[in-house]
Amino acid sequence: VLTLDMTKPRFRTTLAYDLAAVPHISGLNNHMGSLLTRHPGTMAWLMEVIVRRGDLFFVDSRTTSATVAEQLALEYGVPNTKRNVFLDNVPTRPAVRVQLQKLIAIAKREGTALGIGHPYPGTVAVLAEELGKLEQQGVRLLPVSRLIELQQEGKTSWQASLSR
User: Which of 55, 68, 69, 87 is most buried when burial is the number of CB atoms within 10 A of its CB?
Assistant: First the structure.
């Protein structure tokens, strides 16, 4: 756990230890990081480590509307994205199903969308029932790294067409 009261050396040591503890890690996110993601200093420390490694992305779970994580990731050139829908803020099957439909609608409208959730029994059950039906709905499940690539391609295309 990274916390706001850590010194920069302790923050970096803890982060290095945590990253080393996860084989084949490709990215990270803030699961309980609303306080941390509001703080530009600690987000800068995090992005410095990610940039130095050169092989990680960051997902902002958007646990607070006051987050600066995306802004700092962009400033540091860290591949990143943010959550569009929290699947199980209400962890019942009907609520998760509603949130999943919201996620699908966003993906269809915007071209990409990211949902996050927990391994709660209701969440796992709904996903087990519904994930196989995504392609029938015109939606494809992707690794987050590929989602970020597609989002970056879309931004580049938009910027290129704007400059013409």
Answer: 69
**pTM, 2 dp:** 0.87
Phi and psi at residue 65, in whole multiples of 5°? -75, -15
**Secondary structure of residue 80 in the 3-state scheme:** strand
Eight-class DSSP state of 34? H
In this structure, how many other beta carbons lie within 10 angstroms of the beta carbon of residue 83?
Answer: 19
Residue recorded with tokens 């796992």? 124
Alpha carbon 1 to chain centroid, angstroms: 17
Angle at 135 between CA 130 and CA 137, to 5 degrees: 80
CA distances from 4 to 10, 38, 64 (A): 11, 10, 15
Phi/psi of residue 4, nearest 5 degrees: -70, -25
Q: Can you tell me whether residue 48 is helix, strand or coil?
A: helix
Q: Among all chains, which residue has been given the structure tokens 């540091």?
A: 76
- pLDDT-derived band at 62 (thresholds 50, 70, 90) equals very high
CA nearest neighbour of 144 among 119, 117, 112? 112
Q: Is the pLDDT higher at 162 or at 94?
A: 94
